[in-house]
Amino acid sequence: MSKILFVCTGNTCRSPMAEALARALWQEAGIEAEFLSAGLAAWGESPASPEAQKVMAEKGLDLSEHRSRSLTAEMVAEADLVLTMTRGHRDLIIERWPQFAHKVHTLWYHARGEDRDVLDPFGGTVEEYRQVAGEIEELLKRILEQEKGV
Ligand SMILES: N[C@@H](Cc1ccc(OP(=O)(O)O)cc1)C(=O)O
Question: Which Pfam families match (predicted)?
Fold first, then answer.
């Protein structure tokens, strides 16, 4: 079973939403995979931001149990694929652990081959979070289609 790790900065907004959305999409498609998320600058064990929780709840997904975690070498080593929200995140991971460079990509690049970032909604409005969640969901659907060989 493949293991996909999503990485952002704080692990309270983008990567927890990506993790929850991916789990739901893959489950719906009947494809087994394991998902987790972490942050490069995660602070303690913080819950997902209230806006992220709200936007996920609108989609029937529960982020209330989420607690932020810092990315570790072990997490990267154990993942089959590491998808980052920005090129900066990708570059930092590769700088820290060059031996895993082959499996670290941005979400945008892996989904669409484009050098773009999923920008940080931290401090933004719920509508901004909704847009970011929509962007992440579209990119995940593209990856899922590729996995299904569509
Ligand atoms: N800006 C935050 C850190 C932070 C940054 C980004 C952020 O969003 P995400 O979880 O999507 O990286 C969350 C938290 C702070 O000052 O503590």
Answer: LMWPc
